[in-house]
Structures are given as C-alpha cells and as structure tokens.
Amino acid sequence: MRSRTVSKGRALLLVGLALTMVLAVAPVALADPPGNNGTVKIDGLAFDDHPNNEPHVGCVFQVDFYGYDEGDLNADVTFAAQPPTGTAVLATDVVFIGEDPAGGGVDLDASVTYDLSAALAGFEPHPKQGYHVKLTVNAEGSIGADSKHKVFWVTGCEQPPGTIIIEKYARPPGDTVFSFTGDLGDFDIVDTEGGTGNPGSQVHFEVAPGTYSVTEIVPYGWDLIYIACRVRGESTFTMDGPTVTISLESGDLVYCDFQNFKHYYYD
C-alpha cells in the first residue's frame, strides 16, 4: 500500500483554504438564521439605533424592531396598562417589519414613535415610577412563539388642562335662574346685565382633556334660541337640542353661549 505524503507547505495551504470557505459561508448563515428571529426594544429620548432596552422612559418613546425576516410581514402592536396602573388596552398599531433578511440583534427593521399621554390621561400614576405599561408584539412569519413582550414604566404624561366657558345670554336680562347639568356637574347662571362677555353670566371650568356634555334645563316661559360655540385650538363640539358635547384637547379653550328669549319678548 502506497502512502501519500503531504508537504508542510501544502498542508498549510489546505488549512487556509478550508478556513476561507468557513468564513465565506458563516456570514450567510448568521445573516438569516432560521426560527423566531425578531426582538423588540423600548427606546426613550434621545432616540438612537442602539439595541439596548430602556425600562423607564417618557410618555413619548420609540419601539425598535430588530432581526425580523424578510417579506410581506407585519407586527401587531398592543400597549396595555399593567397593575398598579390598571388592566386596560391603551393603544394598538400595525408595523411593517419585513424590510430585509434577518440579520441578528443589531439589524434594525423599524422604529415607531408613540405618545401615550392621551391614552393614560384617565389613570393614576405611581408617585415615583409613573405608569406601568406592557408591550405585546405578535409578528407574522415567526417559527415557534410569535409574541414578544416588554414591561416598562412611563413618566411625564400629565397633560395641561383645557378651559370650557359656559355663558348665558338672556333677553330680557334679569334674575331668572338658568340651570345646567352634565359632565361638568350641576350649576346655575343668572344673566342680570345682558350681552355677551359679561363675567357675571359665565362659568369657567379648568378640566383635563376629554369629552364633556352640557345640557341646559330650559325654564318655563323661555325658549333656547341657539347655542353658539367658539374654539381656540383643536377641540371640537357637536350640538343636539339643549345639549352641547365638547371634545376638549389639552390647553384648548372652548366657549359656548346659550341664548334664551322669553316668550313675550319676541311675540
């Protein structure tokens, strides 16, 4: 049997070629690993693309999506309040995540900015930690578990209040009491002087952003002719008979004038 002798130089050459082939193949395998590849991170201000997770952020933050597979793939995003804050769903979204092949934990596929200030307006924050929130991401195209979760704390969500002014314009003016009811409580207005802009015939409310209905209880012998509202800001309102419903935004002013005429005044 003839033995084959390999010279030292040839052996080194073969080893070098083998290493080259391994190095050439390895990045391809690592660039698109099989299975449930994706991960999500919470990113607070100032935003960056580093794949680190921040468990304490402000009310405006980003969710970063890393390492998901390529294709027509989306992720369903759900934010929910967690105890001690509450248990309600706060917001939902759909995010495209299939931009390129999965490239591991540093391959950024999407970044989406969220502001939960409006969604958290009705909840009481923890005095030190703020609001407790859970993120759930259900991603298409995953092999195995398709859900990712992050639980984090959010602070700085308190919104400045808005202002609602209810004014009474009566013809003739006098000592008639006009009563109102609704989400701002029960209150009375007397228009003794007549004319708009009279502070004595107005009631001011400084309230949190939200939806408020105000209804006039029209006194006997009077007619509610119309309601005139003006808005400073992005707030909106609707009217239905003696009721105005105001969707108040943070920092806005909504002014509504209820105008009444006594029967004989215009007969």
The biggest sheet amounts to: 5 strands, mixed
Molecular shape: elongated
Helicity, as a percent range:
10-25%
Average per-residue pLDDT, rounded, comes to: 83
CATH level-4 homologous superfamily of the largest domain: Immunoglobulins
Spans of at least 5 consecutive residues with low confidence: 1-30
The value of Rg in angstroms is 32 Å
Distance between the termini: 130 Å
**Second rung of CATH, namely the architecture of the largest domain:** Sandwich
| Fraction of residues in β-strands | over 45%
SS class: mainly beta
Indicate the CATH class of the largest domain.
Mainly Beta
In short:
The protein has 267 residues and is mostly beta strands.
Helix-strand blueprint:
Elements lengths: L7 H24 L7 E5 L12 E3 L1 E7 L7 E8 L7 E8 L11 E8 L15 E9 L7 E9 L6 E10 L5 E6 L4 E4 L11 E6 L2 E8 L4 E11 L3 E5 L2 E6 L4 E10 H4 L1
What labels describe this entry?
46% strand, 267 residues, disordered N terminus, mainly beta, 5-stranded mixed β-sheet, elongated, Immunoglobulin-like, 2 helices
